[in-house]
Amino acid sequence: MASSGQKVVLITGCSSGIGLRIAVLLARDEKKGYHVIATMRDLRKKDKLVEAAGNCYGKTLTLLPLDVCSDESVKKCIDSVKDRHVDILINNAGIGLLGPLESISMEEMKRVFETNFFGVVRMIKEVMPDMKKRRSGHIVVMSSVMGLQGVVFNDVYTASKFAMEGFCESLAVQLLKFNVNLSMIEPGPVHTEFETKMMDDVSKMEYPGTDAETVRYFKDVYLPSSIDIFEAMGQTPQDIARCTKKIIESSQPRFRNLTNSLYTPIVAMKYADETGGLSVHAFYNLLFNFGPLMHMAMSILKCLTCSCLRRRTIFPD
Ligand SMILES: NC(=O)c1ccc[n+]([C@@H]2O[C@H](COP(=O)([O-])OP(=O)(O)OC[C@H]3O[C@@H](n4cnc5c(N)ncnc54)[C@H](OP(=O)(O)O)[C@@H]3O)[C@@H](O)[C@H]2O)c1
Question: What's the CATH number where 135 sits?
Fold first, then answer.
């Protein structure tokens, strides 16, 4: 249970990756400023988190089951929090989807929206009324750079994050009237199970319904570039956890938070040309015309962004 002065932080999707790291970082806060309610849909996956939390487990960190896709689970979880009092809600749970559109079923696409979009909406609807009544609170949403810029073969995942960006941009205005902050975090690539799970799925797939030329572009052109980008630009879950802590501790939290400044020019390019042609053609050329050049650029970047330099690219240091 939270002691007086401690902020109650509820985080979704803490079984691995970014959610796990945020939970541990906040639970280990030197000033013991947080009581972390780390949630996951299957508590049988708790071991990694419990081990990483060490002696914080049961003190500044407690566990609750929560599936963001279930109305019942969300309500039960929030009802079991003392007085339903959540100071900071961190919507982190999410799933990826990668591949040629023709090979993806409508059910798979709906599952992505059910988790990445409606899952967040469901959480916000459950905690927002109490925050508005108390006239205090902070809602954080783990979006992605793909919530700001479309990426080939990530069509549906990107769409789910764009939907979230639009939803939050609209809601943030109303919430501000009630002194409730809303912040988006937009990481680029992060080395977590997210990437591994997607690459595993992709290697098992046969891409039914997709023509051979598209499959070839996906496997032989897109996938190697994507791996290069992850290796050269990828951040760690700990990097994202540190950014999240800074955002929630800021006296005037920013609405948008790109965690990797290497992506700033890409996002800026989109707004520099209102026809959209600049980004579409730049990505087309990078992928299909300048593939070898891009591979070389990524290799150079990988050397340049050795761990000491990479640390400097992370917002908001
Ligand atoms: N990794 C990246 O490159 C990257 C980049 C930008 C943004 N992001 C975003 O960061 C967030 C965290 O991803 P990650 O990289 O840490 O991936 P991860 O290691 O795969 O973690 C995702 C977490 O979400 C949970 N989850 C999935 N569906 C859920 C549901 N219905 N209810 C509750 N929890 C559910 C997973 O639980 P299970 O273990 O039960 O599956 C897992 O704990 C996601 O929103 C993702 O879109 C990731």
Answer: 3.40.50.720
pLDDT at 287: 83
d(CA 141, CA 162): 12
Alpha helices, DSSP H, located in the chain: 17-27, 47-53, 71-79, 106-113, 119-134, 155-177, 193-204, 212-216, 223-233, 237-249, 264-272, 277-284, 291-304, 307-311
Higher pLDDT pick, 226 / 126: 126
pLDDT tens track for 130-161 = 999 999 999 999 999 999 999 999 999 999 99
Residue 219 lies in a domain: yes
CB 141 within 8 A of CB 164: yes
Any known ligand binding at 281?
Answer: no
Looking at per-residue pLDDT, the higher value among 116 and 271 belongs to 116
Tell me what pLDDT residue 112 has: 98
Instruction: Find the angle CA(91)-CA(120)-CA(48) to the nearest 5 degrees.
Output: 40
Q: Is the CB of 124 under 6 A from ligand 1?
A: no
**Ligand 1: does its nearest atom lie under 6 Å from the Cβ of 195?**
yes
| Residues 171 and 89: beta-carbon distance below 8 Å | no
**Cβ–Cβ < 8 Å for 258, 145:** yes
Ligand 1: residue of 11, 12, 14, 15 to mutate (most ligand atoms within 8 A of CB) is: 15
Of 110 and 288, the structure prediction assigns the larger pLDDT to 110
Structure tokens at 104: 């993806």
Q: Which helix (H) or strand (E) holds 63?
A: strand 61-65
Domain contains 134 = yes
Residues involved in catalysis: 157
Ligand 1 in contact with 147 (CB < 6 A)? no
**Residue 52, in any domain of the structure:** no
Split at pLDDT 50, 70, 90, the class of 194 is confident
- Residue 165, domain member (yes or no): yes
Structural domain for 123, as ranges: 94-311
- Domains: count for the chain: 1
Q: Which of 304, 290, 179, 185 is nearest to 244 (CA)?
A: 185
